[in-house]
Structure formats: structure tokens, C-alpha cells
Amino acid sequence: MSAPRTLVVFYSRSGTTRRIAQALSEALKCDLEEITEPRPRTGFLGYIRSLLEARRKLPSIIAPKKHDVSSYDLVVIGTPVWAWSLSSPARAYLMTTASQLPEVAFFCTLGGKGSENTFAQMTAIVGKQPRAVCAITQREALSGSLDRLSAFAKALENSHISKTAGSH
């Protein structure tokens, strides 16, 4: 049984989602790609722009992707939740790769609420159900309490094993 080719892709404005994505990539022993933008979102104006784009469900301008998603078995996409919504850089990534994505899984980082809406938006954009989803609060991420992330990584690994076993 061959190991699945997995890619973790994420956008992070403040660094919280980056920490989670790096930990997940290490747990899954897989490739990692950060969604970047040519225009920074620093300071108060960057924060306000982020909120307005998220509320209006607008994609942002992002740098070209580094990995060919179609060469993977699973792509795990991570985003911060902005105004109870998907971040505009992650929205742009999903919109540009939706037709090429293999199986997907989603994770998000958030202050408190909005994960259900964010996952629903991500599912609608890619047009397929995720293998699994995981919401990590900023408090969990900063405290280093990553039990939920460990469970998510195990669920992704186990879903591959059961899928492979079922195909023989």
C-alpha cells in the first residue's frame, strides 16, 4: 500500500494558521505551500481590507501556486476565518484550483465562531465534500494544545487506509 501524496496549503495573515499548517504538515509528513499575495495586509488598513473582502466574498490577487495540485491524492486547505467567512486569499486559491483538486480536507483558525460558514463556502467553491474538517481556535493554537489537530491528522490518515483497503 503506497502512502498518499498529500499537500497542505494555507493562507495566514497573523501567523496562527501558519503554525497549524506547519504542525499538520509535519504530522502527515507531506508537502506544504503558503498562499501569498503581492500586496501586504499589515496594520489597521490591512485588517479592514481583509474584513471588507471577506464580507463581500471577494477573492484577492494571489501569487502563482508552486505545486500542481492534480499530482496529489489529497489537498488540505487552511484559512483563517474573517468576519465569519473564508479569507479572500484562500477563496482565490480555491477558485483557481477547484477543477484540478483531488480529494480535499479543510481546516480553519478562528477567534470563536464562523467555522461552519467557512467550511460551507469552501465546499461550495470546490464542488465536493471534504474528507474531514477541523476548526482550531486562536486560544488552542497559541496555548500549544493541539489535540484537535492530532485527531484531524489521524482521521486523514485513517480515511486513506480504509479507502485503500476498500479498493482491493
Which descriptors apply to this entry?
168 residues, alpha/beta, 6-stranded mixed β-sheet, 20% strand
Radius of gyration computed on alpha carbons: 15 Å
Q: Could you give the count of β-strands? A: 6
Q: With helices defined by DSSP (H or I, 4 residues minimum), what is the helix count?
A: 6
Shape: globular
Biggest sheet record: 6 strands, mixed
Strand content: 15-25%
Instruction: Provide the succession of SSEs.
Output: EHEHEEHEHEHH
Name the structural class.
alpha/beta
* Unreliable stretches covering 5 or more consecutive residues: 164-168
pLDDT averaged residue by residue: 91
Q: Report the end-to-end length measured between terminal Cα atoms.
A: 10 Å
Helix content: 40-55%
Ordered list of secondary-structure elements with their pairings:
Blueprint: E1 6-10, H1 16-28, E2 31-34, H2 43-55, E3 74-82, E4 85-86, H3 88-97, E5 103-110, H4 115-126, E6 133-137, H5 138-143, H6 147-166
Parallel strand pairs: 1-2, 1-3, 3-5, 5-6
Antiparallel strand pairs: 3-4
